Amino acid sequence: MKNNKIIYYVLIPSIVFILVFSFGKEYYRKEKLKRTKKAFAVMVEFSTGTVRHSMRGTFQYKINNNTYKFIQSEDFSMLTIGDTVEIEYSIEDNSVARVINKHYMDKYKWNVIE
């Protein structure tokens, strides 16, 4: 009987809170990215994520002398730390951004054939 109370009063509300928070955060992000500007960001970290998003990259960019970081879950294995990517960031909230061209640096790399 006591285990049932724990499930009803602790576990279920916790799961509901996590789901609502996740969907709310994603909705906020999508709304803010409706009005954007383009900029460039530098990859500062490459890491493995969760089961749902197995690879992710951390990027850093500067807008109006303020430095921002964001994490995007995607396959960035073709990049190395310090590579530049093209991003778009929200005009309303500069901390909200996403990578739009991860192959931006490809046009500057040399293909050496031996």
Mean pLDDT: 83
Class by alpha and beta content: alpha+beta
Rg (C-alpha, Å) = 19 Å
- The CATH level-2 architecture of the largest domain is identified as Beta Barrel
Stretches with pLDDT under 50, minimum 5 residues: none
Instruction: Name the helicity range.
Output: 25-40%
Beta-strand content: 35-45%
- Arrangement of strands in the largest sheet: 3-2-1-4-5
Number of strands: 5
Give the termini distance in whole angstroms.
73 Å
- Describe the largest sheet: 5 strands, antiparallel
Number of domains: 2
**CATH topology (level 3) name of the largest domain:** OB fold (Dihydrolipoamide Acetyltransferase, E2P)
Could you write a compact summary of the structure shown?
The protein is α+β, with helices and mostly antiparallel strands. The protein has 2 domains: 1-32; 35-114, OB fold (Dihydrolipoamide Acetyltransferase, E2P). It has 1 helix and 5 strands.
Please describe the structure with a list of short key phrases separated by commas or semicolons:
alpha+beta, five-stranded antiparallel β-sheet, OB fold (Dihydrolipoamide Acetyltransferase, E2P), elongated, 5 strands, 37% strand, 114 residues, 2 domains
